[in-house]
Amino acid sequence: MLRITMKPNSPFYLNVVKILCKSPLFSGLEKKTIQNMLLYFHRETWMKNSPAMNSRQTLERFYILISGRMKVSQIHPDTGRELTVFLLGPGDAFDVISFLDHKEHHVVTTAIDDLEVISAPLKKAHDWIETHPEFNENFLPYLGKQIRDLEELASDLTLHDTLTRLTKLIVRHVDHDHSQEGLKLINDLPHEELAHMIGSVRVVVNRHVQTLKKEGILETSRKHLRIKGLHLLLNKIENQFLMK
Asked: What strands lie across the sheet with 93-94, from one edge to the other?
């Protein structure tokens, strides 16, 4: 991990500002406000497949992803079985739980890609809630979405079979901003990583993906997953619910 102070003359500065302007936490803030906030940030990087920030670090600093993806997981100490709780991408924040309760959050963080983040002292991030109403207005909906995502994960694991969980995972990651055929964050993940996101194993996910390909719902190219028939996928989910 390498930490570099954020400065306006940094070669990374303009891209960081661009990402923050699109981030759910910073969108709507004036550019000058974002630039003032950046005075307190440091840039940090982790290599692909390496552990990222730990629970002690998130007690002291608040992180925003700039490029790359990071998974937040729970791993059984004896069996090694893994459940991905969050998959975060550019503009996402970590760790909102430690931000709220000031306690260590014992999870495993892993850089899916080469990871670039910026971090600020947690105390300063708390100050922004009071001094920047726009930041506060963005923070609450962002927190609400994470709570909803956790609720949906818990209900899916309890109530639905693996095929339903996989199809719902795919629908949640449809890239509506560019193409309804593309997927955000999960498009090139190996089946083992998809399995971690739905509480299953690689062989089961592989079988379901092959079924969805035969039904004309998915297609793969160079290890990239792509939706071929979104309407067929939505109909399949609806039919799965009607059958229960």
From this structure: 2-5, 42-46, 115-121, 61-67, 93-94
**pLDDT tens digit sequence for 191-240:** 999 999 999 999 999 999 999 999 999 998 878 898 988 888 888 777 76
CATH no., domain 4-142: 2.60.120.10
The crossing angle, in degrees rounded to 10, of helices 13-22 and 31-38 is 120
pLDDT digits (tens, 9 = 90+) for 82-92: 999 999 999 99
Q: Which CATH class is domain 160-242?
A: mainly alpha
d(CA 104, CA 212): 41
- Range(s) for CATH 1.10.10.10 in the chain? 160-242
CATH 2.60.120.10 domain range(s) in the chain:
4-142
> pLDDT per residue over 5-23, tens digit each?
778 888 899 999 999 999 9
Q: Minimal CA–CA distance to 71: which of 53, 59, 58?
A: 53
